[in-house]
Write a structure and sequence with these properties.
Blueprint (H helix, E strand, L loop, with lengths): L26 E7 L3 H10 L7 H5 L9 E4 L8 E6 H13 L3 E6 L2 H10 L25 H14 L4 E8 L5 E7 L10 E6 L7 H16 L3 H9 E6 L4 H9 L27 H7 L19 E5 L1 H4 L7 H8 L30 H21 L10 E4 L9 E3 L9
Parallel strand pairs: 7-8
Antiparallel strand pairs: 1-3, 1-4, 2-3, 5-6, 6-8, 9-10, 10-11
Helix pairs in contact: 6-7, 6-12
């Protein structure tokens, strides 16, 4: 059974590469900036964040329902990014300008976005074949699902005393959902605390999967004092691919596919489920993550510049039926955090959203490792149990390419 702490990581990030069979010719990326609270509310309605009818009134023909929100509206004077076909983008742009917002097409053609930012630097990773050793796995490239599965098996073969592969369920399309458990006989005499990490919840965010792979391999193979400390004093549970169907689909069909493969319509990134824990992928994790009533919260941060201090729904955007809600109400979890990875820091497309070159994998992985060290020191070494305000801290590292590390407690998400 998982220990008294669950550390849940959900990433919003970026990636690289477009399968040759998929074309985004005619797609555009729109950057919109609301300047008043009224404009912000309208933009949220357009994006379906609030679920109101203003968008249907302003757009009776429904052009905007085919738009995908890459960065949802959150705060006045903070840009939002929306993706869609040229016709829908034109309608939406005129609509937003008529409301007094700034709306600019910053990518004229979707294929150009990928060609310029990702494909020029992307080389198909070498196939990781059965029988290969972990040392032969290229952590500086993005990998297909079957290669990740082979790596997990190789890790178990090379570390049989500390690695266990647990199949906790199947996806909608029948793929195994695997948890990699890392637990050694060394370290603490008393029961160890357990950290649960999820990667790749949103399938198009390849940097999430790559970060998880790097973290796992480094945890198991590094002889550094810190890696040994983390390896021996915590039981780790890692889901490297939380959404295997969607991830496979991003390689073979639609590079920007976000959700699972079980719900229509295909033109919408987020869908309303007909019941709680409706997805097979989440149901599998539900069976492993139930454990003391969450009575405390913790705000923690690392990095440099302070970007914000508030609830997730205010600094990012309001969402319904998320794993944050579920963790708060259904599990016995002491602390839970979300980590926002590298991307377009100021929403100007200095780094294209969801098109992060593979050269960013190692820098991102190092930043993530440093963050986990902070959490380990506070939760395990310092045995953090004190109550704290139900807030989260958003900080960014000094690197101009780093968006932020969001550390927010799912266990007590709302202030009350």
């Amino acid at each position: 059974m998982i220990g008294p702490i669950m550390f849940l990581l959900a990433f919003s990030a970026v990636s690289a590469s477009l399968n040759e069979s998929c074309s985004f010719n005619g797609y555009q990326l729109l950057r919109a900036v609301p300047h008043t609270e009224e404009q912000l509310t309208f933009l949220k309605d357009i994006q379906g964040v609030r679920g109101n009818s203003a968008a249907r009134i302003a757009d009776p023909r429904g052009y905007t329902k085919y738009m995908s929100s890459w960065l949802s509206a959150s705060v006045v004077d903070v840009p939002s990014l929306m993706w869609g076909k040229r016709g829908s983008v034109n309608v939406l742009r005129r609509m937003l300008i008529s409301k007094g917002m700034t709306a600019t097409v910053i990518v004229e053609n979707g294929n150009n976005l990928l060609d310029q930012s990702a494909l020029a630097e992307f080389n198909p990773p070498p196939q990781f074949l059965p029988g290969m050793r972990v040392a032969e796995f290229d952590l500086e490239q993005y990998h297909r699902l079957h290669e990740i599965e082979l790596l997990m098996k190789a890790l178990k073969d090379e570390h049989p005393d500390s690695v266990e592969l647990l199949t906790i369920g199947q996806s909608f399309e029948g793929r195994d959902i695997t948890v990699v458990k890392v637990s050694t006989k060394e370290g603490r005499k008393r029961p160890k605390k357990g950290f649960w990490l999820e990667f790749g919840i949103h399938s198009r965010e390849w940097i999430s999967h790559a970060t998880g792979l790097h973290f796992l391999v480094h945890l198991l193979t590094s002889n550094s004092p810190r890696a040994i400390q983390l390896r021996n004093n915590v039981d780790w549970y890692m889901v490297l691919v939380s959404n295997p169907d969607g991830y496979a689909y991003t390689w073979d069909h639609d590079r920007f596919w976000r959700k699972t493969r079980s719900i229509a319509p295909e033109c919408v990134d987020v869908c309303q489920a007909n019941r709680s824990i409706s997805e097979e992928e989440f149901r599998a994790c539900d069976g492993c993550c139930r454990g003391a009533d969450p009575n405390r919260n913790w705000d923690v941060s690392w990095g440099g510049e302070l970007l914000g201090l508030s609830q997730a729904s205010r600094v990012m955007y309001q969402a319904y039926g998320t794993n944050m809600d579920w963790v708060r109400n259904a599990t016995k979890i002491d602390f839970a955090f979300g980590v926002e990875l590298r991307g377009d820091r100021d929403r100007t497309m200095a780094l294209p959203a969801f098109c992060l070159p593979a050269k960013e994998i190692i820098p991102q992985a190092k930043e993530f490792w440093a963050g986990v060290e902070v959490l380990y020191d506070q939760i395990v070494v310092n045995n953090l149990t004190r109550p704290a305000p139900s807030l989260f801290v958003v900080r960014s590292a000094t690197s101009p390419l780093f968006v932020s590390l969001l550390c927010f407690a799912f266990a007590l998400l709302l202030c009350f």
